[in-house]
Amino acid sequence: MLITNVRIVLPTMVIERGWLLIEGEQIAAFAEGDAVVGAMPIVEGRGLTLIPGMIDIHGDMLEREIEPRLGADFPIDMAIFELDKRLAAAGITTAYAALSFWDHDSHDNTRRLDTVRLMTEHIHQLRPQLLIDLRVHARFEVSTPVVSPMLGDLLETGQIELLSLMDHTPGQGQYRNIERYVTSMSQWRRIPRDHVEEELGQRLAQAGSLEERWALARDIAALAAEMGLPIASHDDDTSAKVDLVATLGATIAEFPVTLEAAQEARLRGMSIVMGGPNALRGVSHSGNLSAREAVAAGLVDCLATDYHPGTLIHAAFGLAREGITDLPTSIGLVTAGPAAALNMAEHGRIAPGLRADLCLVEDGRLPRMRGTIRNGTPIYWDKVMWQRASRV
Predict the structure, then answer these.
(1) For residue range 228-250, what is the model confidence (pLDDT) as tens digits?
(2) Dihedral pair phi/psi, residue 294, rounded to 5°
(3) How far is CA 310 from the centre of its chain?
(4) Which ranges of 157-258 does DSSP label H, i.e. alpha helix?
(5) I need a surface site. Which of 135, 153, 255, 275 has the fewest CB within 10 A?
(6) C-alpha distances in angstroms, 155 versus 63, 144, 192, 215?
């Protein structure tokens, strides 16, 4: 496939008008100017911008696909296929489905241990049939040690591709403001505040000390490191917390909730992840660090979908349009940055010999994803791309 007359975003520059050749599953060549046209499928790229396929390091959407409303459950395989289509149409070619290994949340069926195991197994069984490369990101809640035996088993059998260490005990981390936590949980779950406060008291009584909560995390992190997996921390709020997770082998800092934590993660050479919704809206939905503030300070390497796939492309182009970064830098937050954090050497950049995972975007007031290519084959192709593509 030959894509002609297209704007190409490279890691450090933009080719305003060029061409790119795909052979098999790889990028064969690209250059500025006119292409030599041969007997091959040709895509007219005028008015479009070519970027690498986006990589989502943390997306919580599968749980909501399975149970979009409380008590309304859908089959896991159906949910995976439907999410797969949404991610492809959003320009995401590799995604890490963030599954919660967090068994105390009884109001949410998707966080029961048996459901989490089934989700993990279904992803691996269905992967050959999917449009995108869907992987498993295990979110290990260190305050619920009951999940550790099953998580350890899934790690040892190679069914986990990324581990993050989380502590959602109220009073620190994401929920360091307990009053905000009670209000948020009451609104989210649509239950009285006194019910949340009662649960909170029980949870704090069972949580134990910081040292007790994190003792088991050391064993799980050591097993993940032995399996060669990247390890992330989650919602760090202090330098001391970053120091703790770094000693456990964490090389990725997901969603630091304060500037102090983000700065400490940068000093330690960790890859820093912020949310696409946060970057797009300009504010954290839970009142924590603004992703735009962190990007402007040079403290972000990756943007993640978090809970909305469409935000990645809008956030990346929006940051450049508003002058917070240049376009290669902002596109790198959803491509090269995640690839580096996840040790995916063949992904995230446009270069000869790398995987032909690519997106064609119409850049206007709102960027529109027109086509997504994975391993050299279109997996999302709207009517605009169908009209632009010759078929030899």
Answers:
(1) 999 999 999 999 999 999 999 99
(2) -70, -40
(3) 12
(4) 178-189, 193-207, 210-226, 239-247
(5) 153
(6) 20, 17, 38, 18
Please give the DSSP secondary-structure letter assigned to residue 36: -
State the DSSP code for 8.
E
At CA 305, angle to CA 78 and CA 125, rounded to 5? 35
H helix runs in 234-378, sequence order: 239-247, 259-267, 276-281, 291-296, 311-321, 327-332, 336-341
> What pLDDT does 145 receive?
79
Give me the domains of the chain, ranges plus CATH numbers: 2-51+351-388 (2.30.40.10), 54-341 (3.20.20.140)
Could you tell me what percentage of the chain is helix, strand and coil, using 3-state DSSP and rounding each to the nearest 5? Answer: 40, 25, 35
Tokens of 360: 């064609």
Query: Position 222: which residue type?
Result: A
Which residues are bridge partners to 361 per DSSP? 49, 369
Contact 166, 141 (CB under 8 A): yes
Residue 71 — left, alpha, or beta (φ > 0 → left; ψ -120 to 50 → alpha)? left
Q: Is 69 exposed, middle or buried (0-12, 13-18, 19+ CB in 10 A)?
A: exposed
Are 312 and 54 in contact by the 8 Å Cβ rule? The answer is yes
32 CB-contact burial (10 Å; exposed 0-12 / middle 13-18 / buried 19+):
exposed
- If you compute the radius of gyration of the chain from its CA atoms, what whole number of angstroms results? 21
How is residue 57 written in tokens?
Answer: 């390091």
- Averaged pLDDT, 135-162: 92
Supply φ then ψ for residue 33, to 5 degrees: 95, -155
Q: Give this prediction's pTM.
A: 0.90
Tell me the C-alpha to C-alpha distance, in Å, between residue 174 and each of 45, 132, 143, 234, 302: 43, 31, 14, 9, 19
Query: Tokens representing 365?
Result: 């007031």
How does DSSP classify residue 53? P
